[in-house]
Structures are given as C-alpha cells and as structure tokens.
Amino acid sequence: MGCYAQRDRIARPYRKNEQAFVESFCRTLRKECLGWSKYKRYEREELEKEVQEYLEYYHYERPHLGLDMQTPLPYLSHLT
C-alpha cells in the first residue's frame, strides 16, 4: 500500500470535525469505488487492488471541493 501522508493521525472519539472527515471519506470510498454491496471473502484480493487504485486516483487526480476543485498535488505545490 502506498503512503499518502507524512505522518499517521488517529481521529479522537467524540470530536465532531475529525469524525465528520472520516465518515465523509468512507462515504466517498463506498460511493465512488466499492458501491453498497456486500462482498465475499474470496473477493478480498481483487477488492484490495481496486481500493489501492482508487486511493491513487483520490490522492493524485481527483479534484476536491475543499481545495477549490484542485487536485491535491498542485494545491500542495502552491503552499510550499
């Protein structure tokens, strides 16, 4: 699996904003990648590959509303 952040961050329970971010990401992953079906154990390897490909797209190519509809890499390059 690729590394998408410089450090890990653990969402603290009962913190509205942190939980909202995690829930929003999970909803986006379900909506744009996995769908709402249930999966079988034998599908795990294929699903892991599909999620990895989606994460590459999500972090490097997908425009984000919170970044003024820019992709993360150009947005971050303007900050440094």
Structure commentary:
The protein is an all-alpha fold. It has one domain. Helix content is about 55%, strand content about 0%. It contains 3 helices and no strands. The protein has helices at about 15-35, 45-60, 70-80. α1 (about 15-35) crosses α2 (about 45-60). The chain is globular, with a radius of gyration of 15 Å.
Short characterization:
With 80 residues, the chain is mainly α. It has helices at residues 16-34, 44-60, 72-79.
Oligomer: single chain
Topology pattern, helix = H, strand = E: HHH
What is the gyration radius calculated from CA atoms? Answer: 15 Å
- Percent helix range: 55-70%
* Structure summary, number of beta strands: 0
How much is the average pLDDT?
82
Continuous helix count: 3
Which secondary-structure class do the elements indicate?
Answer: mainly alpha
What does the largest sheet look like? none
Low-confidence stretches: none
N- to C-terminal distance: 26 Å
**In what range is the share of β-strand residues?**
under 5%
Number of domain units: 1
3D shape: globular
Salient structural properties:
mainly alpha; 3 helices
Blueprint (SSEs and pairs):
Blueprint: H1 16-34, H2 44-60, H3 72-79
Helix pairs in contact: 1-2
